[in-house]
Amino acid sequence: MWYFTWLLGVLLACSFGIINALWLESTEDMDRIDDMENLDK
What we know:
Layout: H1 2-40
């Protein structure tokens, strides 16, 4: 039964990594948009 816990832990770690990567990309895009707006001023 330990393998169910192990599998859930691996899936949780993978999903955390994917969500973290998506979050980093979205904040990077927001920073880029802010920089472009500041250049226009």
